[in-house]
Design brief:
55% of the residues lie in helices and 12% in strands. By secondary structure, it is of the alpha+beta class. Strands 4-3-2-1-5-6 form a six-stranded antiparallel beta sheet, with helices on one face. Strand 3 and strand 4 form a beta hairpin.
Length: 310
């Protein structure tokens, strides 16, 4: 194989948007858990809407099940997006069906309105596009429910998906739902110089190691990283900004977040040295002023129970 072929193969994958492969166990878990959830949704939808209109509701919730059980850590899969996204979309759809006589206009306004309100309430959920059309395109069984359609079956089904998402995903150690419960990677020191050595290859490797898919492509992740690095390089504290008594932070994530208070600065044969203490606690250290300025991302002050940028 020629050297250029792997690169061309990678560009073709990126152009087509081919997703990262998943493990066999992830495939099995996604399939079984989504199937269990959809069985519950079908029973409820059939009982409320009947044989004619139930398929519309099942189809809409089926796309949500894919998100909750195949992409449980994704932004569109989270409880607020699922429940509020379906609820808002259902409400818009019912109102359009009630007050817009033109079917074409009702369809357009239902989808557009559900997108607008979902963005306003920060609950964008792709499956809401299907839910909002059910009252507009559904039969007499749906339309006879009126606004109660929002509560049952829509919100009831959405809540069941979320509850089953929590229960079923919790059975597997590499999965958690909601995403905030996902297992955290082992902490490591947040060293700016080490971060600067990261490359797109490192990001692609980390993305491939994840068990569950994410709603982000390798290119998006690289763009996000490069933008963050550009901001980090221009946002550091300058050596002229470091002063005795000031508190400075590395702006690290989670356990890597650290604040150091400058106790004194003195010159020796190697240059100007900064003596500091790590807060909270009594640990102390000394480092060159230039190194301290590279470590410090911002000057901070303790305010309202938290460290905030000064």
């Amino acid at each position: 194989m020629k050297a250029s072929e792997p690169r061309q193969h990678g560009r073709l994958h990126a152009l087509l948007g081919i997703q990262q492969p998943v493990s066999a166990r992830e495939l099995l878990v996604s399939t079984i858990t989504a199937g269990i959830a959809m069985a519950a949704v079908y029973v409820i939808s059939h009982a409320v809407l009947g044989q004619t209109d139930a398929p519309l509701m099942v189809a809409s919730m089926g796309s949500s099940a894919i998100l909750v059980f195949a992409v449980p850590h994704g932004a569109f899969s989270q409880p607020w997006a699922v429940v509020a996204g379906h609820g808002v979309s259902a409400l818009v759809g019912v109102l359009c069906a009630m007050f817009i006589p033109s079917l074409e206009l009702a369809v357009a306004m239902a989808v557009g309105g559900s997108i607008a309100l979902s963005l306003v309430f920060r609950c964008l959920h792709p499956s809401g596009g299907g839910t909002t059309l059910i009252p507009v395109l559904g039969g007499a069984g749906v339309q006879s429910l009126g606004l109660s359609f929002v509560l049952v079956p829509v919100l009831l089904n959405a809540l069941i998906l979320v509850l089953l998402g929590y229960l079923l995903n919790s059975l597997f150690p590499w999965r958690r739902y909601p995403a905030v419960l996902a297992p955290k990677p082992p902490s490591s020191p947040a060293v700016p110089s080490a971060a600067a050595q990261l490359s797109r290859t490192d990001l692609a490797y980390a993305l491939r190691r994840l068990e569950t898919p994410l709603e982000i492509t390798e290119s998006d992740l690289a763009l996000l990283f490069e933008s963050a690095m550009e901001h980090a390089q221009r946002d550091n504290v300058g050596r002229e900004d470091v002063s005795v008594g000031g508190c400075y932070s590395n702006a690290g994530f989670g356990p890597n977040f650290q604040v150091r208070r400058v106790l004194a600065m003195a010159r020796d044969e190697s240059g100007l040295q900064v003596e500091y203490e790590i807060l909270p606690g009594a640990r102390r250290g000394t480092m060159d002023l230039d190194d301290f300025a590279r470590w410090a991302r911002m000057e901070v002050v303790w305010q309202n129970g938290d460290w905030r940028r000064r």
